[in-house]
Write a structure and sequence with these properties.
Layout (H helix, E strand, L loop, with lengths): L13 H13 L4 H15 L11 H9 L29
Length: about 90
Amino acid sequence: MELKTARLTILIDPNKKAAFESLCAQQDRTASQVIRQLIRDYLAQHGVEYVPSGLNLDEQIAGKAAGDSRPARKKSPQRDTTAPARQRTVRRGA
């Protein structure tokens, strides 16, 4: 799964868009989910490789070397719970 996203704007016939969105809803998927899958399939069909945004190449290679076909996920930084909470200073009017 990508960690960053970018917008892709397309022009499409309104009736085709409505039919597509209706079919997606029947399959309990969003139009964006289906379009992202179509793009992944199209890239794979043409042998185009890419590293999903937010993943570094070393993590991607390490995952494939270990036999994992899924891209490695970037870990979220952990919050330091041992440090005291920062207190907010309130200034009183003059």
